[in-house]
Every structure is written in C-alpha cells, then in structure tokens.
C-alpha cells in the first residue's frame, strides 16, 4: 500500500508541475532597467527591438540558422538587443538576471539546434551581429577582433583562451597574426557517393594526420541533389591548401 500511495503522490505532483504556468516576468521593469543601465552616448533604445517594433520579426528571422526551429510568434521572446557597445551587453546581462529573464546569445556560430533563439521560458536574445570590428597592430603582429567578425575576414590567427569563472559574454578576442607566404596553392575536388566519395573519405582518414603542418587537407560531407529528380545524395568536398 505504501508503494501505491507513493506512486499516486508522484502522479499528483507530476500533474501539478505539468499544469503550472510559467510566471511572466515584468517586462516593463526589464525595459526600464535597460534604459537606466546605459548612458546617453550609447543609448540602448537604438538597438532594442520588442514585438511592438515593425522590424522585430524580420530581425529575428534574418539571423536564425535553422528556419525549421525559428518561431517569430514565440510569446516567450520579450526583446532582441542587437548590441553595438559593451554597455549594451552589460545592461542586458544585469537586468535579465535582476528580473529573472533567460538570455539567449546569438552570434555567428553554427547553431542548428536553435539554442540561441528559442526557449521554453521568457527570454531575450542578445544579438552580437553588430560587433564585427577589427583593430590590427602591425608592429606586435596582433589584432583585437570583435566577437561577430566573419571568419573569412581573418586569414590566419590563434585565439587566446579565456577562463570565465561565472557567466560572461566575450566581446572580442586577441589573436596573433601570422605572415602569409608569397605563394599559396589551393584546390578543391567534389565527389558524390556515386563518384567514389566513400573511398576518398577513407583515404583522407589515413593520410590527413600524417601530412606536414604546412599542408591543410579538409574533407567536408554535404547533402546535395541526386542525379534523378527528387533524389538526394552525399557530396564530399575535399580542399587542400599549402
């Protein structure tokens, strides 16, 4: 009987939890906190979007990697802060913590699971796409690169590891610059499964780790259209540079 009673109690608690509604934070307090947390030189109102703004939906959709997971009508999304200054990031983190609002940080990474733009609880998106400047110091062969600078604009570099004991947002990286050789050799070969992509990938696994450090050999599989209409196949892109 004790086991039955415990099981019934567990089911009752489960029903209560599943029926419980998420407590909505005070959006007005959060927005006022943002305004008070930034000065007149870099007002956060210039980069703040709420559902009342006409560009809210387009801003949300523009930087989502997986359109199947995006939900522009998500009522849990309170605001999008497209930060342009460090004070915008600081105010967002502080105010969200104070009002119990979850933060999703959206940057230029490969977020195909939607973790940076969807949530089951009230949240804000801290969008980093405006932070893409670079300051180069030729004499020291270093550069400060903001978080969202596209990788293709950085030829060579090594990121410096940063240890963060608590929650934080990285605004920029300091990288070491490497001189580019006068002559570069690059070629790219595409093979589908029907053209022997499996054999190429197998050989790549055998030799890639044994090549000199001056050679870079990458094999990247991708889904592409097949020979017949409606069919799909795998295409392997092999790139070598030296």
Automatic annotation (TrEMBL):
<keyword id="KW-1015">Disulfide bond</keyword>
<protein>
    <recommendedName>
        <fullName>FAD linked oxidase N-terminal domain-containing protein</fullName>
    </recommendedName>
</protein>
<keyword id="KW-0560">Oxidoreductase</keyword>
<comment type="similarity">
    <text>Belongs to the oxygen-dependent FAD-linked oxidoreductase family.</text>
</comment>
<keyword id="KW-0547">Nucleotide-binding</keyword>
<dbReference type="GO" id="GO:0016491">
    <property type="term" value="F:oxidoreductase activity"/>
</dbReference>
<keyword id="KW-0274">FAD</keyword>
<dbReference type="InterPro" id="IPR006094">
    <property type="entry name" value="Oxid_FAD_bind_N"/>
</dbReference>
<dbReference type="InterPro" id="IPR016167">
    <property type="entry name" value="FAD-bd_PCMH_sub1"/>
</dbReference>
<keyword id="KW-0325">Glycoprotein</keyword>
<keyword id="KW-0285">Flavoprotein</keyword>
<keyword id="KW-0964">Secreted</keyword>
<dbReference type="InterPro" id="IPR016169">
    <property type="entry name" value="FAD-bd_PCMH_sub2"/>
</dbReference>
<feature type="signal peptide">
    <location>
        <begin position="1"/>
        <end position="20"/>
    </location>
</feature>
<keyword id="KW-0732">Signal</keyword>
<dbReference type="InterPro" id="IPR036318">
    <property type="entry name" value="FAD-bd_PCMH-like_sf"/>
</dbReference>
<dbReference type="GO" id="GO:0050660">
    <property type="term" value="F:flavin adenine dinucleotide binding"/>
</dbReference>
<keyword id="KW-0134">Cell wall</keyword>
<feature type="domain" description="FAD linked oxidase N-terminal">
    <location>
        <begin position="79"/>
        <end position="153"/>
    </location>
</feature>
<dbReference type="Pfam" id="PF01565">
    <property type="entry name" value="FAD_binding_4"/>
</dbReference>
